[in-house]
């Protein structure tokens, strides 16, 4: 941030120097750059200097704007001291009549690309962060519209803007001002639009996860997704009631749902984007526990409110399908979301109860708080009805996943290296990373060694390898040769680890799922 003294002196001098009826409002503007409407903010990126002179290294858009103000941006930046570090900003007022406030933000190194250690594209991450920081400053100034420098990667810039500005305001009387980000200049408008769609997809998942459990009940969740998909003629949504779930003999799912007064829903979405509607679909499955109290194995009350986001698996996979439809991706996707609450009551599962899943396997419910795997067992069995290209499930499944990786990456347990490679490559681009975890027989033994049933819903060594025993449990309900289980418990919420997301439910890894689907739609091998 500019020192107040420097800002006032420099800005006053510039305000005086910038002619009012200047080339900005009447004369020619650099090719492709609009002059902007009055009252807009502008966010421009600047690379850290590679030369000793410390001169600002502008992006193309920065250069264009600097020309528009006759080199005053470069001058004022050099007056302000050393070059801007990554993610640091300076605000200039009065530089240009159409943009009363201009935020310049540090992008880091110009040639940043894939970082092999970090398993992500650092250049894209830098852009997302810088743009998010810049846009939030414009929001703090209560300016309703901001034009954004594409920074050489308009998709990443749009993602930074739309993700960075998002906040769950729904139930507050006093809301943050709405700021609409737009692309500065006319280059890369398609990539910008794609970035907006990807980010809006993640924001939809964030919205559903953040909302209180008394607002997003199973039926409300399903209706919200149905409403988002209503305008697409190639999408069919089935909201299956409890009676349907009973006919499907989903005894494991029903055993969890019956503890709550809120009826369960099985949400089924068919997106037919492929030229051939008979093409094998990608099947997404998401854990949809709209509130997880733990049931009779009750969770401690402190922090229990976060379990309103225990439908994060359902939220991310359904949002990914909404996004795929908006992008008109040429593939077929089926989305399945078993939705219910996990509550203690006279009808709830009791530790030691045995229930029967759709494939006939019996499950001993040794801990009623390990409920997600019960829903998923039945949903995974059902997923095998569709001759899927691949089955990918996402679930806020275990606290142990958070212990293992924290919020750095989603844990991926998969029986398919083909599937792993696609997910991994997608995540390098999105910056919403994945990390492969084991599906060893070692863990399977720990869930199948069970006194009363075929399988126990917890590992026999209780907490040891908790994320891995949960995955081994799910594997008992899978026969498909391309299946991946994504444990997203660690990435469920954000404190400040991802700088372009505000504190709150994160909606991760929606963009990775979308990018994965986009890659699959381009993959000529129809792997089965
Ligand atoms: N929904 C939780 C897992 C979770 C914890 C998600 C923290 C996000 C943040 C899940 O249903 C659960 O309670 N799992 C138990 C399993 C245990 C009883 C074997 C857990 O992780 O403690
Ligand atoms: Zn639980
Ligand atoms: Zn849960």
From TrEMBL:
Cofactor annotation: Mn(2+); Zn(2+)
GO MF entries: manganese ion binding; metalloaminopeptidase activity
Role summary: Cytosolic metallopeptidase that catalyzes the removal of unsubstituted N-terminal hydrophobic amino acids from various peptides. The presence of Zn(2+) ions is essential for the peptidase activity, and the association with other cofactors can modulate the substrate spectificity of the enzyme. For instance, in the presence of Mn(2+), it displays a specific Cys-Gly hydrolyzing activity of Cys-Gly-S-conjugates. Involved in the metabolism of glutathione and in the degradation of glutathione S-conjugates, which may play a role in the control of the cell redox status.
Oligomer status and interactors: Homohexamer.
Gene3D superfamilies xref list: Leucine Aminopeptidase, subunit E, domain 1, Zn peptidases
Domain Cytosol aminopeptidase: 367-374
Reaction(s) catalysed by this chain's protein: L-cysteinylglycine + H2O = L-cysteine + glycine; Release of an N-terminal amino acid, Xaa-|-Yaa-, in which Xaa is preferably Leu, but may be other amino acids including Pro although not Arg or Lys, and Yaa may be Pro. Amino acid amides and methyl esters are also readily hydrolyzed, but rates on arylamides are exceedingly low; S-benzyl-L-cysteinylglycine + H2O = S-benzyl-L-cysteine + glycine; an S-substituted L-cysteinylglycine + H2O = an S-substituted L-cysteine + glycine
E.C. no: 3.4.11.1, 3.4.11.5, 3.4.13.23
Protein name (database record): Cytosol aminopeptidase
Cited PANTHER family: CYTOSOL AMINOPEPTIDASE, LEUCINE AMINOPEPTIDASE-RELATED
Localization terms from the record: Cytoplasm
GO cellular component, one term: cytoplasm
Annotated source species: Cyanoderma ruficeps
InterPro entries associated with the record: Leucine_aapep/pepB, Macro_dom-like, Peptidase_M17_C, Peptidase_M17_leu_NH2_pept, Peptidase_M17_N
Family: Belongs to the peptidase M17 family.
Class of the enzyme per the UniProt entry, highest EC level: hydrolase
Segments passing through the bilayer: none
